[in-house]
Amino acid sequence: xxxxxxAGLTKRFGDVTALDDVSFSLEENAIxxxxxxxxxxxxxxxxxxxxQNTVTSGxxxxxxxxxxxxxxxxxxxxxxxxxxxxxxxxxxxxxLTMAGRLFPNWDEEFAQSLVDDFNLPRNRxxxxxxxxxxxxxGVTVGLAARAELTFFDEPYLGLDAVARQLFYDRLxxxxxxxxxxxxxxxxxxxxxxxxIEHVLLLDKGKLLLDAPSEELRGEVMDATGPAAVVxxxxxxxxxLHREQLGGTxxxxxxxxxxxxxxxxxxxxxxxxxxxxxxxxxxxxxxxRNAVR
Amino acid sequence: xxxxxAVARLHTVVWWNQFIWPWLILFISLSANYLIFLSIxxxxxxxxxxxxxxxxxxxxxxxxxxxxxxxxxxALGMGVTRRTFYLATAxxxxxxxxxxxxxxxxxxxxxxxxxxxxxxxxxxxxPYVDVSNGLLQIAVYAAPLLFINFVTMFVAILFVRFGTNxxxxxxxxxxxxxxxLAALISWQNWWGDIWHWLSTQHQISLLxxxxxxxxxxxxxxxMAAIRRTNA
Lengths: 292, 231
What we know:
The complex is a heterodimer. By secondary structure, chain A is an alpha/beta fold. Chain A has 2 domains: 4-204, 3-Layer(aba) Sandwich (Rossmann fold), CATH 3.40.50; 216-291, Alpha-Beta Plaits (2-Layer Sandwich), CATH 3.30.70. Helix content of chain A is 37%, strand content 30%. Chain A has helices spanning 42-49, 71-74, 92-102, 108-117, 131-144, 161-177, 189-192, 213-219, 227-234, 259-268, 277-291; strands spanning 4-13, 16-26, 31-36, 57-62, 77-81, 149-153, 181-185, 198-203, 206-212, 220-226, 238-245, 248-254, 271-274. A 6-stranded mixed beta sheet of chain A has the order 5-6-7-3-8-9, with helices on both faces. In chain A, α4 runs antiparallel to α5 (131-144). The radius of gyration of chain A is 21 Å and the shape is globular. Chain B has helices at 2-12, 15-39, 54-77, 82-113, 116-120, 134-187, 191-200, 203-226. In chain B, α1 packs across α4 and α4 packs antiparallel against α8 (203-226). The interface between A and B is medium-sized, with 31 and 27 residues.
């Protein structure tokens, strides 16, 4: 059974369509990258799955059930978001105490080790934490909750590079020991590219891409070489982007590239190399907008 | 039920805010009243009543507003359902009202036993609010707490759900309805009948019955309103 199954999922706020006929599924024990520009609908999608908001139309199942107001299903999910508000008077230790009571798989020892890793002051008022420390607290709760389905929505605003690396390391190590379904929503695509096993790309409320990241990496390539040969090579493929400098052209192509194709490119003097996940996402998003 | 108790802890985990502040403020109010009435020792008997007790009701209302405006969004973020959050909050409210009722009754007895803290002060034994029966006295203290907490929560839910405009629209609608009602009553010359009805109401009805009834209506209204509220 899928952890999450969505079919024709649509969410409107007044006359704004935040999600438009989105269908996908999230499977057990995988790390997903939920990518897209600001306003693409990422947060809305996570809010619907976690019962924070209601669906306008379409089908949505969380562990096979409707998520809205579903205690049993929601207890198996943790949703860490950048915009999380904390009550006044709550200190770091209070947030951890409550998380420990509310998440059934909470690992207190792991939580305490993360608090030490991130140098979080246990007795400080949460509302007085810096942006980065607030994010570190969210990350701590999200990891130690060990929920079967874990959402991180831009979890590291204000976190420095070292702390982010710490987060990736702890996430991977804990994921290896306690496999679960993790959804990372972020703009720092290159940083998480190695973590992500599957990419969901949203643009203007539409699901643009739903593919294993390995597959995507082999499908989107940069071809660089003399203009005439590159254009001929590109003719049978989807050109996402083209830039020319003198007689040299670089095109970003989408299609399948088997060994014969790669050999052919090499013989023609075309330099064929995979683009980064970030570049692939940028090109795919821009291409779609250009078509419109 | 276990889940409800766990969620109820959201309100009590910062016990200083939830429990100490209301009583600290009450005792400061008591101390101030004590000093004032100590200095005017020639005060006529029966004139040493004060309204200082109301502070605990005001602080309690503020806590109820915070429960909805701040703790509710946090609870939702932690995967708590609206229904469980509301039931847990209602449980805390009712428990707290009863506990405060008992504590206020104990203080009422102390005030009686010490002849008004030695200076004839009526802080807890306020006229009309002072009834002879112990259990009734607890209810007299507790019912207004339930009333003020559930009504505050209901208004706070409307605010979280509909924003500033929703809140003001509610206030405007309330004023309009009661204004029209008052106009109708004046026009029909019903005021006399209303005062007569109030004066024939039993003391306990006015102190316990009606506040508890309104509290129950507000509690049900809050439950209905929060089910579709997104923080």
